[in-house]
Amino acid sequence: MAELPRPWSARVLDGLERAPSRAMLYPLGFGPEDFRRPVIGIASTWSMVTPCNMHLDELARAAAAGVERAGGKGLIFNTITISDGISMGTEGMKYSLVSREVIADSIETVVACQGMDGLVALGGCDKNMPGCMIAIARLNRPAVFVYGGTILPGCLPGSERKVDIVSVFEAVGARAAGRITDQELEAIERHAIPGPGSCGGMYTANTMASAIEALGMSLPNSSAQNAVSPAKREDARRAGEAVVNLLRLGLKPRDIMTRPAFENAITVVIALGGSTNAVLHLLAMAHAAGVRLSLRDFERIGRRVPVVADLKPSGRYSMSDLVAIGGIRPLMKRLLDAGLLHGDCVTVTGRTLAEDLKEVGDYPDGQEIVRPLDRPIKPDSHLVILRGNLAPEGAVAKITGKEGLRFEGRARVFDSEEDAMRAILGRRIREGDVVVIRYEGPKGGPGMREMLGPTSAIMGQGLGAKVALITDGRFSGGTHGFVVGHISPEAFVGGPLALVKNGDRIVIDAVRRTLTLEVPEAELASRRVRWRRPRPRYRRGVLAKYAHTVSSASLGAVTDLHLDD
User: Would the pTM count as exceeding 0.90?
Assistant: First the structure.
């Protein structure tokens, strides 16, 4: 085993003076021969606070076994995770995006402190996945990411209808509108989540898993496996072996996480119809890797890449349906053959993307989940970057075209998600309204809550094509409808969203890519003079620290933006 590099662990464990360090490791299962092996950290986001991550302890042990088999020594450690699905719509959701930074900081801290030579990171939910990747990019030690896998869909008793967590959120709106009964709501609630795994559509977790695989930082097919499956356990074991191989090859994350690789990730996210959160997280991951990426790149790539996957929330199928026909690899092969992917990018296999995809076959005949590139669901991106006098720095719209490409309506302004939700469930939102939810941005929330509750309630009431919603907060990957988020600059720092009044005319134009407040500039100037920033909602603790350090959503809402100087 002596031939394997130990660039970091040797500094912590070798030599006479490091005897105390070695002594601390004997109780953890180290033997004398293990001190000649590279130490590989297994960063697990396992916990029992969410079904997304409840099975990751088993996968962490499989990864450690793979490390040992390849000649390394695996050390498992944990970091936190939170549940968006549980905290959604509450004050607790303000901690969601913050957890991305806490996870990244904690993984970086453990790996760097303990002198680990490489890393396998396991994530199974929205924020812990980019959190793992930010840490991997910062550390720049050989690393592989393992996705926990997708949940299987739930099924209503006595029915063939498949349900998931978004079904529950939409059922809340349907019950408020009198479209379903209490008993029907309870049935959906009880059967939507049948076991372990991440939310089952092309929501944020499955979107980010697909993006990370396209980026080259997870093994082939890692993004498209059911959480409870032999394939997922084997993926984790092979990841342990792969990171030791990367150490042998001297291949580091920043060798893989290049600008062309990020363009590949964006391309795959668009083709799959993925979550708006991918914009925020890919910007943050690129920042950590030292790669220049901006909203302009999403605009540029979005003009030439079509949406071809008919996946939830806007489509008909779940991620487990996509797994059954081969996952995202055949789609990536189609994109590569069409010249839409950079095939020369290196991946964690040690090969190029083109080499990884060389033997991949196409989808089975007759499948309807992924369309041919020349017969797309939408000829360009559903992730539309809007600019205008309401969003000078940009905003991110999720527009599939099913609700139209233009919306003009009158503003209904709310200074918090809770106020908006009360109005929606109270049936006070009417056709033609543009629901404005502000002071929910990275600094103003703080924490940039996701608006799955309000958007789902609107959809559940049958108003999806008749009401728009705009915010400086975020949207869950489960959101669909005519929605615009990430409006920058946010209201709390004096962005134009702070100046909107009830009844103002707002125009969302996905063709012209504009977000316009139809109020004369002189009137806006007058309002700006009278505007006063609200008092910070938190003055102590993690949310206060986050609000003090976080950047604009247009830059990825990173917390170390000004530390490069």
Answer: yes
